Amino acid sequence: MSHQSPEDLVGHWKGAEAPLLPLLHAFQERDGYIREQALEAISQGLRIPLADLFAQVSFYHHLTLEPDGWDAPRVCDGPVCRQKGSKALLNALPGARPMACSGRCDDPIPVLRRGQLTVGLEAGGLQTRSSPLPPPPPDGVRECVFAKIREPDRATLKGYRGTGGFRGLAWALEADPDALLERLDQSGLRGRGGAGFPTAAKWRAVRDAEGDPKVIVCNADEGEPGCFKDRALLDHDPWAVIEGMLCAAFATGASLGFIYLRYEYPETYGLLEAVLEEAHREGILGEDALGPGRAFHIHLRRGAGAYICGEETALLNSLEGKHPFPRNRPPYPVTHGYRDKPTAVNNVETLASVPPILHEGAEWYRGLGCGEHSGTKLISLSGDIRRPGNYEVPLGLPLATLLEDWAGGPPEGRRIQAVTMAGLSGGFLDARDIAEVTLDDPSIRARGSFLGAGGIIVYDDSRSMRDAATDAMSFFADESCGKCFPCRIGTRRLLERLEGSAGPTAGAEWVDEVKSIGEVMQQTSACGLGQAAPLVTESLIRRFSEDVGWKHEGADPS
Amino acid sequence: MTTENVFELDGRPLRFEDGETIFEAARRAGTAIPSLCYDPRLNAFGGCRMCVVQVEGIAKPVASCTTKITRDMVVKTTTPKVERLRKTLLEMVLSENPDRQVSADRGLAASEMNDLAQRLGVRRGRFAGATSGKSRPEDDNPFILRDYDLCISCYRCVRVCAEREGDYALGVKGRGFATQITAGFDRALGDSTCTYCGQCVQTCPTGALGDKQIMRFESLSAAPETTRTICPYCGVGCSVDLVTKGDRLVGVRPAMDGPANKGALCVKGQFAYDFVQHADRLKTPLVRNEAGELTPASWDEALDRAARGLTESIAKHGRKSVYGVASGRAPNEAAYAMQKLMRMLSGAHYIDNCSRA
Amino acid sequence: MSNPLEDMELPDVIFCIGTNMTECHPVAATRLKRAMANGAVMVVADPRRIRLAEIADLYLPIRVGSDAALLLAMAHVIEREGLVDEAFIAGRTEGYEAFREHLRPFSPEWAAPICQVPAADIERAALLFGRADKGAIYYTLGITEHITGVGNVQCLGNLALMTGNVGRPGTGINPMRGQNNIQGAGDSGAIPANYPGFQPVVDPKNAAKFERLYGRSFDPEVGLTKVKALELAGRQIHAMIIDGENTVVSDPDAHHCRRALEALDHLVVMDIFLTETAQLADVVLPATSWGETDGTCTNTERRVQRLRAAVPPVGEARPDWWIAAEIAKRAGLAGFDWKDASDVFNELCSVSPIYHGLDWERVAEGRYQWPVPEKGHPGTPRLHEDGFVNGRGQFKLIAYQDPAEVVDDEYPFWLTTGRRLTSYHTHTQTGRSEAIREVLPEERLEVHPEDLQRLGVKDGDAVRMTSRRGDVTLRVKATERSRPGTVFCSFAFSNVPVNLLTGSGYDPITDTAELKVCPVRIEREEAGLPA
Questions:
Q1: Given strand B62-63, what is the order of strands in its sheet?
Q2: What is the value of pTM for the model shown?
């Protein structure tokens, strides 16, 4: 690859599906950065205007126009890694630059350099190692997606087959798409990426939409800080995700599939490349994947460092080689998705849930929840907690049970001051909330937050919650795409107010401005990023008002 | 079917076309919903969010520019809540730029944001913080001022360049609050595919892009007036509005309703108008004197001489000794008068125009 | 244009030949670019790799003057592949059988060496156009400024007829007119073959009509073209009035042109500047400029629009029509008592069948495209929708013909000329903008780097370029826009009067000069450029 001419490289990708991102990566890997000549060759070959290419390259964090920019170490500076000393590591590594939370919160601190990932708490101790397996559940707790993940060799095709793999798909192929959708409907499975749309309804909409080919996109752009569950699934149970995508293709009639993986998971990328190659070789994917003449192909694409690409329409633009702004909706991806074709965009966890549900049945799945809640949810737990990791919890489990019983509680001598919800997007819950809330959306929404993608970051009583909020807002400000005004300006203004760098620094005036901005963002932002970001300040004001120098009068507004 | 295409706008029933957005239908009905990123010629962008309205049954306000109307939709454009949101949002937008007033001469839409601030009664000075956008004074092209200190990243310039002009010269650098509108590889306009058509200038709502040619006359105190005419250059026939201050022609603006151009112009039509009042213009008739020099003359003298030369030629060499060439650059009336003159003089069809060269 | 400008956003296949539209008609080109953004395919044939060629799906860098060979071969392929519109041919045309026979020898393989492009590309172009649902042809002077200009246009007509791409939205044969009112000048009767409204002078009915209208009798035969008149200057033609044309710079063979004007007894020039041509005049009459003049003009899509004065005239300048009328009156002619431009325009409408439904008020908003035969008529955005004016569409049996002069050992380069985006015609107007001069300070001859190397000339050096008629000196610009062996410059700068060189031949029917082809030789100019 390294000796290929620009024309060869462009020629290789031209005509392929979604060629822009792989081409940009190929040039960056060849040259150590993205040269102007490379952009000119791409512009000519793919007929994308140069100004547009420049804009995209400058948008993504991991693409660089500076000579040797790819060489610079990128140190995770997410909220958990900050707790673990990322600033010191940044100072210790020459030329290092911070990067947003990179999904290794259960095994910090990840450092990315030239497409290689190492982890460690100190500059001298960086090493390559695979991501941790989920800790085993307490006795008697039944799992769905993690049920087999700890089996040896589960990540290999042989191991997958040997531990009950492909039984969900086999059931579906023997039944029919209607039966599949019916079973999913009954299971109550909802999207696990955060939005929570019923999976069967989405697939049915794609099936019924006009357009060919239909497309399945696995959203593996796990960018929410404090979330690392998709990585665990892809690293340790990749075939389950492939099987889930095959089920989706069977249900919808799709023949084209993509896995859009975040750039910060390079080993996962290598592993998936091998898995897909094997799957095509073995005929699991390919022209007859779903029976004679019923093709399904999956293409693996890497993002390039942009949280917004986890938003499904921004992800689709990114795949298509367009500026990764979220699209205006409607139309929705189910009718106008990848290249305006009917497209189901599903989270990794959702897809991995499908095979066991199809095999075991809807009743079984519903029965996994606590009480009236049905099913399970993966929680990525990290921060000031003794046993961080991914946990598959029955929906309705008391949060305190997860924190204290499953994960061992706070470090010695500390108490838990706060946790985040939905990574950072759900803002903070305080100790009182923690004692009362159960892990399901009705309970959490009643507290003005939401479960989202299932990331929970723990802050013990040694932490400043204003600092935590500042870190969180700094993330949203960095990741705001810049398309819609309330988010573009609002994230910046809220950050400045949290930092104390502009505007009022505390007190009633501070609260007035922060609340005004927050309301505009929450009510008028175009996508979830801008709508959710003010939960950080809102929950700070509501629950940690002394941290912002303000005593609210009267009852808690919640 | 179409009789059923009715929705409710601010308490009144209103017909709508299939696929029409709330913003467009309201505009058609005379309800001006505030916006900063809207240009009727461009695809709806949904960026500024100033145009949010309340739709019954939907919890959050929706952007009216991207929301298509459905039958029996109930829309309120001016609830206290959306008015509060718009005002606060506009205060946020104003806070990203220095408080600097610039002349409305800069471009067709240059005062749009200030006008909106006035209309909504919005105060400057709230939400202090960093400013966005950085001007490019070093781009010394003679046509387009890039005063990005005043930019609000509405993308109208980028979109008009791509969607209308098809030059794709403009783009952005970065993201979020650091978004910087730029050209090509973030260098001067002249280093990009820009053709200086000026469309970006004319759609900019803040004066962040300015017409440097018209700005030469900013100090003239007379109020600018406009006169609709047609561009003098190629055969496309773009409609333009000439901007004058007193007797001075100070600039050209594209006519958004021009049938041939719909708001587009090229570098020549937009910027190359100095010839009209150029010092080189012929100001008096000239006749060649006996020494063989062209010297100023009165109209009477010159016209008599012109006519006499023609009649004498006919008297001496016959009627087929005179010839006329009309102009493809002058109005129809000139060509008509010329052909009538030549035909009447000679009875022959000794008239042509410059289309053969 | 047979079709309106807005139709340019509708074709699914666009064929541009001999038109540098993004530079010469930039606003029209935006419509083609929008069509492409919506999925239209574009084929461009041009000797230069112009901007349109860069964005095209298929670009054919044909040798200058080889257009007819390309078009014949495309027709050959379309016929061979059965991509013809049988119903259209049967219903609306005649002469197809003979045309089919005529096409037989003109295969892409035959055309390839003439056009110097691969036969496969000609084939592809033909298939793309032949398979179009809505195929539209756009051309400009690159087609007409040849000794075979008429034949070239007829070849385009054949292509459109055989594929039925006429009279429907997004189709047509669409010449882009180069000057703001060149269409109107013809409409108004300033041509030797027609009275106003394209009423042929050879038709006795028209002669009788104008005798009645104008009060004198007229010759029943076509007059002289300007080219012929200049040739006859000093022999038959002894007095001339030129309105607003810088003939000695814009016309071919400038030496000849200057000699012709000098041979006149009497030359009257109406203009806004003392142009090179005006400097030769006996009487120079200052006309009002655009921006100072009320009037009308007619664009390339036959749209009649109003020009309005925004500022008072400089000095004593007067409108052209007023000047012509005053001369007429002083020559003892009647019928020139117009009060203002509206009088003149209304008279034009009254004598012209295509403007008959128009008047000064009606054209105020530019809503009408002619023909507008009577009041109340909505105008005619699209010609030939229901039929051709002259009955059926005729297939024309055109043969390829070499340019008047071809390259040889003495004159080994093909020179082709044209315009640039930032200059207009002879630059008398654009050149008076400081800003334009800043971005286009001088004319440079575009030469391929390989040719420069062969000539031992570096980018920016001065050269002397010589044809059989004259020579100019100018700097060179190294560029791969043209293929080796072909050079380009514009005629915008009076210090590079490239039309001293051109003028090798004329189309026998229209007298249009072969400005697009001129063999030249190029040598380093050791003395450099004059200061």
A1: B12-15, B6-9, B74-76, B52-55, B62-63
A2: 0.94
